[in-house]
Amino acid sequence: MAKATSSEKILKAATQLFAYRGYDATTTKQIARAAGVNEATLFRTFGGKKRLFRTVTERMIQATTPDFAPVFNATEPADFARLLSMAMYPILTPVQVRLGIANTQSLSEKQLIAYSRENAFPYYQAVTNKIEEFQRAGKVRADVDPRSAAIAITILHYGKALIEALFGAAWAKEAGFKPIDIERFADIWAHGVVPRGK
Q: What is the pTM of this model?
């Protein structure tokens, strides 16, 4: 196995520290110590804390962009919900969620709006468009607001990840969460909880 480079060690340490301490509470000295390098190496490689944090968050965004092609090719709402859930759950780890929170907290309101437009809105709009497509085909009720349905399935994905990020992986075990629940959650989104035909 290839030995990790100094930059890889720094990025790994920075990811963990930024995720669990936040941007403001994390120092370059702490990152260098956790990475096993001297602080001068960190500055020489990344130029400083701000640029390092930007690199960490950019890598996070790249790592959390699954292949959505099979998802958006689904022809049934239940299949769409299941495939979307299976694509999202594996990448929404507690570290990724905490990094996302740290990133948004480090942005001004103007920067946050720009970040959302670039990274969150395209996903949300694509989900909305797919639901509208199902609606036109008569596969989703005409009285369902596609935007609300898109928000609902987004909350479905991020809800568990956010709780896990806040309370730890032990929460999922204590709550009895199993991988099969991904399909169950998708089914609830697609069909609701009221007995069918009522």
A: 0.71
